[in-house]
Design brief:
two-stranded antiparallel ribbon, 4 strands
Length: 75
């Protein structure tokens, strides 16, 4: 019997909760975040906390509270 682990990232946007994973196996969350970054996901730092944001929260008004400047996506 074998086991596998499926890594997921959940959006930290307010009232969002979107979850995504990779169609290909990812060994670490860092690899998964690199994949999701190509799909529009972003990470924001605010008050010593890091938030993962889905594409909707990263570019809309919802994401603006996660940092002082208007959000931009890094590729």
């Amino acid at each position: 019997m074998s086991a596998t682990q499926i890594l997921l990232i959940r959006c930290d946007g307010p009232d969002c909760g979107a979850e995504w994973g990779s169609p290909d196996p990812a060994d670490t969350h860092t690899e998964l975040r690199a994949y999701l970054r190509t799909r529009g996901w972003a990470r924001r730092r605010s008050g010593g906390r890091v938030a993962d944001l889905c594409p909707d929260c990263a570019v809309g008004d919802i994401g603006r509270h996660h940092r002082d400047a208007p959000p931009t996506l890094r590729s």
